[in-house]
Amino acid sequence: xxxxxxxxxxxxxxxxxxxxxxxxxxxxxxxxxxxxxxxxxxxxxxxxxxxxxxxxxxxxxxxxxxxxxxxxxxxxxxxxxxxxxxxxxxxxxxxxxxxxxxxxxxxxxxxxxxxxxxxxxxxxxxxxxxxxxxxxxxxxxxxxxxxxxxxxxxxxxxxxxxxxxxxxxxxxxxxxxxxxxxxxxxxxxxxxxxxxxxxxxxxxxxxxxxxxxxxxxxxxxxxxxxxxxx
Length: 230
What we know:
Structural class: alpha/beta
């Protein structure tokens, strides 16, 4: 029997992005994190949603068909203080300053790492009090704010990359995490390397964990197996 990590309860995210490839990729990634995601590709649909539903965070592109992201942000601020992470290809200072003047909470430019996107969203959720500060699978506990880890009360010293890899497994305890998933989540969707970096990183991580806790699924990926004490 496996413990699955209990991470978030009723975390609803609105994702607004007109590039359907990025929209689908980010939406899938966020849902795999355990979050509930409403996705739309234009500002007018998003405007209707912000009146109809309460979200814990909104991830918002600037260049949108219909109501653009800056106007949508101003409209949102008239009715809600929902954390907003702007996600856009516009990296110039004027665009960023305007977003912050319109009370955006954070700003990420494309291309971006999926893991960085999640970390920034998590930071906003923690600030608003919506996100738990630790996650657990059996005896394995991760402390999200400090990148700390413990197994059965004993501290495990991890590098930031090792922590991020282990976090993916804890969030998916008892499930197979594929090589492709790890590459996308940890190294980014635009990473040009190969699976060799995964194997090298997994060897180092496994050396720091109890033997057999992460099982290899040959040709597919890995699975975190945590036994119930009961």
